[in-house]
Amino acid sequence: MNKISNKTLNDLELQKVLVQISDFCSTAPGKELALKTTPYPDEDTLLEVLHQTNEYLASFDNNNKIPNHNFDPIHEELKMLKIENSILEVGSFRKISSISDTVNQHLKFFMKFEEYYPQLTRACSHMEYTTLFVDEVGKVVDRFGEIKDDASDALYHIRKAIGLVRNKINQSFGAALSSYASSGFLDDIRESVIDNRRVLAVKSMYRKRVKGSIMGQSKTGSIIFMEPEATHQYNRELNNLHFEEKEEIQRILKVLTNTIRPYRELLEDYQEFLSLMDFVSAKALYAREINGLLPEINQERELYFREAYHPLLLVTNKRAQKPTYPQTVKLEQENRIIVISGPNAGGKSITLKTVGLLQLMLQCGILIPVHERSSTFFFERILTDIGDNQSIENHLSTYSYRLKNMNYFLKKCNDKTLFLIDEFGTGSDPELGGALAETFLEVFYERASYGIITTHYANLKMLANELPHATNANMMFDRKTLEPVFRLVLGEAGSSFTFEVAQKNGIPYSLINRAKKKIERGKVRFDATIAKLQKERSKMAKTSSSLKEEEEKTREEAKRLESLNQKLKTKLEGYQELFDHNQRMIYLGNKVNEIAEKYFINKKKRPLISEFLKIVETENAKRKKESAAEKRNERERKEKIAKELESKVAVIREKKKKEKKQKVAEIQKPKPRPVLKVGDRVRLEDGKAVGSIDAIEKDKAIVNYGMFTTTVAMTKLELVEAKKK
Question: Which of 656, 718, 712 is CA-nearest to residue 683?
Fold first, then answer.
């Protein structure tokens, strides 16, 4: 049984959403399903329905498009099939055949793409694929909705006989028409049609000379319309055949009806399935319009609507091309209740209704307009107290009604309940009503219920600040412009900005000052302090955002400098190694040069070889014996550095090449075309043959190539040599 009351559905205006969804339905049964939608009582069924809609929505963006589900309802046909010996009309059979064919298309499609649409496939898995209806109806009814000639042997012979008799009628009438016309018995119009029969237009003076039946006469009585005797006999025969045809058709339709009658339940399933597809399609189309999606359904009892939009407000503003402000709300076990305060017309009630309506829509199987990282869980009850709901009939005031509603809340509230209360505690003495509202809130808190309330009462703001699993929130308000910001801020209470709003609405400043003097100074200071804190929080939020941006920039700059430092360090090490190597080579070169110079002077080989061996031994002593692995690592490191340098050089070259091309393109200008005259020697663009211009007519020139002349467009010619003056 559904535990969400009709009052909640009305308070949150679910019916308006359902009407918008029904507008996307293409069939009457689909619209009916949409308008009768209520929250699902169990989570398993709800998840199945939500995934069906989500799968249909996904089909809009892939190539595996779901087949068309349009159909003509067969409610009357199903009622007729319940009655024994009833006979369906030809149009009914066409609807049954069409609905069967449409279902067959869906069954084949979902069998093929079950992996993409598991829940939609499951929705039609109980139905069998059969061509019985299409085949049986196809044997009897053609595509134009007429009974086929070969629907039965008897009907075939009857219609063949009808065709022969009609030929005889036409022949007999033609013979009579020719005979009596030549005798001069007929009027100038010769013939006419009465009661779908051809008749002769006989002059009244000759009516006794014509054999046949009188069918009528003209207004003046000068013409008698007569059916020839032979034609009359054939018409009687034709009438008898038509009667036999009608009886045979009724017999065929009865047989066909009895063939289909045992499958009435299957046809009901067909219609229910296509109605469901129409409804699911409408929900998917609605989700596309409002950017709806399926948030995560969690078991941690956390409601987190990020960037949530009120769907009705979103659609209205979208059509009026106005902005809609999203809200982010989070309820969890550590923060179950939110008390929203702030100025009137600041968006408190809209925020409360947004959360309630979105949760209600989701529990009705409708996708909602929130950020993709949103999540929520299943509530057994959603209780609402929105609006004054005065009852004149029951003599209830606003406050009496609200107390009666609170009594219902106290009976039903538990840890699986979401309660939403607008302007909590209003309608009575502020001090006494506030105290009672505070007590109610304590009870809801003790029962671990989740909820959102809006209020102006300071004691409720203070209570929310004291309770560990409750929090204050406020709707931001710009004190300079006295305009609402429509942004919910969690963590602190909001000022009602009573005097500021009054000033904005034109109340004289002198009256506002008088009002301030009439209330306790402490309360004014308290309200002003809240407003000041709200202003400071706004400044801190901006400063925090700015600092985060600066921190992110600093972090990125530090990473860049570190990377640059590493590259420079690697280059310096390479340069140092190269410098040391060069220095050693210079030293060795100098030593070898000294030895060579000595040998040049004294020509002694032994001192030369001795000195040279000393140098070699000294250098070998300095060298470290490197392992094969170290040499390989060093080689790989150098290769890596070389590749990096090559890639950078290639990028720089490509960049310079592009810049050069761009500059060349900017510098180069199209050359002006020369003015061609008669006698100039020219040739075609990219051509070799040269000829002379004999004449110019408009934009074309007659070019003489010696052996032949041709007409060519002036734009296609190039000047080879101008005519000599």
Answer: 718
The DSSP string of 537-583 is HHHHHHHHHHHHHHHHHHHHHHHHHHHHHHHHHHHHHHHHHHHHHHH
pLDDT of residue 291 exceeding 80, the answer is yes
| Type of residue numbered 642 | A
- List Cβ neighbours of 392 (8 Å cut-off, separation of 6 or more): none
Question: In terms of C-beta density within 10 A (0-12 exposed, 13-18 middle, 19 or more buried), how is residue 383 classed?
Answer: buried
**DSSP 3-state of 489:** strand
Q: With the CA atoms of 488, 421, 43 and 303 taken in that order, what torsion angle do they form, in degrees rounded to the nearest 10? A: 20
CB of 405 closer than 8 Å to CB of 385: yes
H or E element that contains 383: strand 381-385
Q: Which helix (H) or strand (E) holds 504?
A: helix 498-504
- Residue 457 Cα to chain centre, angstroms: 43
The closest of 404, 106, 118 to 275, measured between CA atoms, is: 106
CA-based radius of gyration for the chain? 48
* 271 vs 127: CA distance, rounded Å: 11
**How confident is the model over 671-687, as a mean pLDDT?**
77
Q: Is pLDDT of 518 > 80?
A: no
Count Cβ atoms below 10 Å from residue 44 Cβ, excluding itself.
Answer: 9
Alpha-carbon span 343 to 475, nearest angstrom: 7
The full length of the chain comes to 725
Whole-number Cα distances in Å, 374 to 288, 336, 519: 17, 17, 44
Give the pair of three-digit tokens for residue 332: 């969890």
CA distance 644 to 571: 12
CB 477 within 8 A of CB 494: yes
- Beta partners for residue 193, in sequence order: 198
Whole-number Å distance between alpha carbons of 505 and 677: 83
CA–CA separation, 163 and 149 (whole Å): 12
Integer Cα distance of 419 and 380 in angstroms: 11
For residues 309 and 351, give the distance between their C-alpha atoms in angstroms, rounded to a whole number: 9
In sequence order, the β-bridge partners of residue 147 are 141
The per-residue pLDDT of the chain, averaged, comes to 82
Chain centroid, CA 378 distance in Å: 25
Q: Which of 59-63, 380-384, 560-564 has the highest mean pLDDT?
A: 380-384
Average pLDDT value for residue range 478-495 = 66
DSSP one-letter string for 22-65: HTT--SHHHHHHHHT----SSHHHHHHHHHHHHHHHHHTTSS-P
3-state helix, strand, coil in the chain (%, to 5): 55, 15, 25
Please, which residues have CB within 8 angstroms of residue 138's CB and are 6 or more apart in sequence? Answer: 97
* DSSP state letters, 607-656: HHHHHHHHHHHHHHHHS----HHHHHHHHHHHHHHHHHHHHHHHHHHHHH
